[in-house]
Amino acid sequence: MKTFIILFTILFFNYLYAGEPNILKPEDIFKMSLKEMLEVKVTTASKKEEKISDIPASVIIINRNKIEQYGYMSLQEILANVPGMYKIYDMAYGASFGVRGFWTGYPRNLIFLVNGVTQIDPFFNYHILSNFNIPVEAIDRIEIIRGPMSVMYGQGGFFGAVNIITNDTYNNKNIISGSTDVITTKKTAIRYAGKDKNIKFAINAGYSDFKPPSKDYYKMVSNPSILSSYGVNENNNSTEGRLDSESKYFNVSTSYNQFYTNMSFNTSSCKAYVIMPSTSTGAPYAREMAKIMLGYKTPLNDIISIDGKITYHNFSFAVDYDLHPISFKGLSSGGTRGKAEMYEVEIDTYFVFNSNLDLTIGLYYQNTPKTNYDVDLHVFNKYLKQDADDIENLAGFSQINYKFNDNFKFVGGLRLERSFDYTIRSIDNSGKPDYSITQRKYNDNNLDIIPRLAAIYSINESNVLKFMYGEAINSPSFFQNADQLKEKKEGLKYEQIKTFELNYLMTHYKNLHINASYFHNVLDNLIVRNISVDANNNIYAYSNNGGEIVTDGFELSIFSNPFNDFNLELSGTYQNSKDKRNGFGDIYPSYSPHLLGFVKASYNFYPYIFSITGNYIDKMETYWDVSKKNPDGTYGNRIGETVNGYFVLGANFRIDDLFSKGYYLNLRCSNILNKEYLYPAYVNNTWADKGLVGEPISFLLTFGRKF
Q1: Beta bridge partners of 574
Q2: Is the pTM for the entire model greater than 0.85?
């Protein structure tokens, strides 16, 4: 029925908009030279337009043409093909990404924005992709800035920033599409954008329904006999029907003269695995997130312009667990519920004194006034209610750009940030006669100073050197601090990273572009969550700060257009991490592959495009648990086995102007060789010590129209 609805929607819109389409010709896709691409202006790095060659950061731009060229079917597939990034899937929070040797376990260290609006949820401080499940048809371009971004974006811009632009109305391009493989996946997307005099608007909507192929539990455990203790038997020993997901997304962006707005609404339900394997119908993890932003941007005179905005965030979630260990005799495992609201106010002032000197000054205020958390986990005899005072954050930041001459540019930035005290209240055994009330004040009244420095030297118009240093911090979230109160653990320190990078850009007109980087990262106080269940089915969940981890790495990307219709991209990253804690010298850091490799190639023979993508991810170690007891009585070991490296190949075939102008057909095949591979185990699912089974071969057929 859903397949019929998708096809009907496409045909209906084709009838409604049967006029001559207004689109870029497919044969024009590859006409922009690599040198011209470096002249493209992006806004994410400094919150104002800058050319890629002038940006004090390592930048990757993925535009709509690239997405169509390689047939990416989701945001996570796009990110999995970005040099220096690697995907890990833990079956709890969906896909999250490591960056240059660091993966933190939870999606809270890489900031995501949609049209400049942060996609953070105010409860966990996570950037979970299913909270903003944007259809790829809505994406005009993605600006990826790697390296610390806390000076401009504050906490969360730890490893970088990803800004997804969906409101570009440069050619009034509209799209209606439907995708399916008949069995597992059904998706539809609608985009309608336009402009009239001083009014611009873009409306994007998407729906997806995914029922992934079954994965065998026995392939994920080294000791199959333990599965019976979780209630697993021959009738429920796989993920069949227990990893289904469904999402709906809607976004509206408008601008009128100096005013602009952005509103987004997302609902999703993704079945998740936490602590134990699901054995019944699965554990739906339902989320709702809404964001409303109103902004005003105007020049005050020839030198000064201002940009002010206020944003409202609303987030709620509900998890109904599917945990049935043999020691539990109840019918319902129970669940958790949470909700939070957040307000942001930001005023940025831009001074352009002349062509060689400009200054940005910003003020930022954040308030999270309503945060509530309810736990009713019958399976673990855990009943809890928690809430908090207003959680406030105040910051001021500035960045100066100065050109000494046509060849040399200096960039300096500084952020001063303060998080104010707040109190968390906790009712343990809520609703029971023996309930108890505790509370704790979290004192983080220190003034944090976050710097950023860069020197950019243009040897000539085809060769650019960038010397960059940056820092970033990330404070514990309400959820992490609430864990500490519940388990009576000490408070957490904020995470901190310092990064030095030397970046070299070289272009040769139309034929060759080289992007090379050496990076040195120092990560301190990484927050890691610990989850355990004792013999009496009591659950314990809390976090610890790790020690210092140092990573040195080198990254090389080569982009080539040997001839007009053929594109080739090759990229490789080598990274080596060391844990500097006492006694950890011989223990390689977890979730940090030494090697990453990427290859992309496409050939355009209008109206056809054929392309391939390939990813290599080196072997990875799992988390080292210092409390894990070994058979000889000592403590300290990995929570799971080493997972081997793997190479995954994808292919795409696209036909433009299939019947007439605007119609297109796209066939994407992922993991075309059906390579079996594993993601490393994490603390959410230590039962799967061998690793979590990766995605098998899949096909997705998309039919759509641009008008």
Answers
A1: 554, 595
A2: yes
